[in-house]
Amino acid sequence: MIQTASHVTRLTFLTILALFLAMPLVIVTGVSFNGSARMTFPPTDPSLRWYVAFFSDPAWISAFNRSLIIAAASSLLATTVAFPIAYSQWKHSSRLAKFLSGLGGVPFLLPPIIIAVLFLLFWGAVKHVGQIENTIISHAVTFVALPLVLISLGLSSVDKELVEAAQTMGARDGEVLLTVIFPIVTPFIVSSLIFSAILSLNEYVIAFMVAGFTVETLPVKVFSSMRTGFTPTMCVGAVLFALVGLAGFLLIARLGNLPKLLGAKP
């Protein structure tokens, strides 16, 4: 009886929490289908008017495409930097790798505004401002902690006996890496790419401070558009980001055990 009550209580709490977390997205999605330019929910005179307006406006499309490019490039850069550090730390217990790993986690822990100001000062000092690569590198440095953690988690799941068996059979370090370690760690690498890209897509403060309106991402476009008033077109951008994030999580789930990839214990 007590166990049943505990199960019902836990299920009720999780259901309420899920509804609470999903409600803002439900409201934003509903508003994006409004027939008028008002922020009303449930939507009145539902139509695809604002979706048509979004995809027919070059400014919105450019901002969305730019966000996708920055997200893809920054996640690839962050993961490329993270892998050798995590691998060196796992294989050699390198002090330098441990130091770099700890250093990589610092930007992720600091408030975004602090990181944004630091990057603003840096790019100003090197006299390289208002470029898309500034945002890409800044996002990669900020979010490199995530692939570091995930790849390290993947490497920790590699059975050392497999590595020793491969070496006994005459495999060199490079061959062991490609044929034994890499296939096991691949789901964690892909997860790193996806998670980093999602974070980059939704990041506003650093993107605005580093490049501003010269390299306008979709979050920057949304906030700048709010100065002239609200239109449901902004909600369309939020819905698109939500769909991209959902697609990313579904892809991660297809790769294997999602809770395990997130670090849950068996």
Topology of this structure?
Elements: H1 2-32, H2 49-56, H3 58-92, H4 95-109, H5 112-125, H6 132-143, H7 145-156, H8 160-168, H9 173-202, H10 205-210, H11 218-225, H12 233-255, H13 258-261
Family: Belongs to the binding-protein-dependent transport system permease family.
Main location: membrane
Transmembrane segments: 12-33, 68-87, 99-124, 136-155, 176-198, 204-223, 235-256
Describe this structure in words.
With 266 residues, the protein is mostly helical. The protein has one domain (49-261): MetI-like (MetI-like fold). The chain contains 13 helices and no strands. The protein has helices at residues 2-32, 49-56, 58-92, 95-109, 112-125, 132-143, 145-156, 160-168, 173-202, 205-210, 218-225, 233-255, 258-261. The longest helix is centred in the N-terminal third of the chain and has 35 residues, at 58-92. The mean pLDDT is 79. Keywords: Cell inner membrane, Cell membrane, Membrane, Transmembrane, Transmembrane helix, Transport.
